[in-house]
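B., you asked whether I could sanity-check this one before it goes into the benchmark set. Here's the sequence:
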Amino acid sequence: MNEQSNRNANEKNAFCRFLARKDIVFSAKRYGIDALGAMALGLFGSLLIATIFNAIGLIPGLAFFKTIGSYGAKAAGPAMAVAIAFALKAPPFVMYSSALVGLMANDLGAAGGPLAVLLVTIVAVECGKVVSKETKVDILVTPFVTVFVGGVLSLLLAPHIGTAVSYVGKFIGWATEQQPFVMGLIISVVVGVALTLPISSAAICAAIGLSGAALATGVIPPNAEGLALAGGAAVAGCCAQMVGFAVMSFRENSWSGLVSQGIGTSMIQMPNIVRNPRIWIPPTVASAITGPLATCVFGMKMYGAAINSGMGTCGLLGPIGIILGWFGGEYPGTVSIFDWIGLVLICFILPAVISWALCLLLRRIGWIRADDLKLDR
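And here's what the prediction gave me:
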């Protein structure tokens, strides 16, 4: 009995030493904070920076920026996967192989692509690390295992992750049929939260068609005005998350944090949300307020591209989509000073003021502590 116990203990110790040698750490911090944070940076360094290029490309004479930006979506999956592999301290060969895994998982995951990339890449990279440099044919074994595991998991899991995320889209679709106050509240909060989560709010909005603009076929949607109002509410919710986090974390992150979150992405706060979910309260409350104001008071409507409804202030594409809809889309009316005031209040001023005030209150009662919002810690 003692002999068997000793053998089991030795085997366990040997396994633990092997994991330590491979730098494989099964922990919430490694996967839920380090990998998730790196994935957000990978997304920003590809798709989101490309959206900013697309926005610049709208300026006459600078169309080449849009040409560069058009490749952002293709690069997003590999960029996220390589970033995750780097955070997991993968050997070079594993890291390079993860690019293919990210491409496949992101493509098959559709609107849930970023989440699929996160889950699939973590498993594929850890398996690749297990076999890395363990054979004399490492040049074959390591990329084979990494890509095989990632490829199989992408085929098995990514489409289901995409389907699960599509239910969020169906819920948003149901909300577009509700009366303006309820619609504004639900869509603003749900799409805003989706923007910060590792899923694609822009893809969801594009799939549902949250815009009153004509479809690709040239056909005006039957519920064009309802979809346009819903698009305005989505813009409000996304702006509330991005502007809210940017302003309320200024104390910790200064101007670099203001810019990276305000015109980049609030997703980079996800590791901090995992540590303390209460930091999510101020921008979410802000979205619950600005959404109904957008639909019921200012009648803010999206007649630009539906994808812009889920972009928020990333590259300023949410507000730009509204403005392009006014002057280049099928916006059914004249644009007044009231429309401009509403756009500025909903997209910038109210999210900043509400989130800052609520954050200050939560700091005072101890729900948000020093450095809870600090990036890169």
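One thing to flag: The mean pLDDT is 89. Otherwise nothing jumped out at me.
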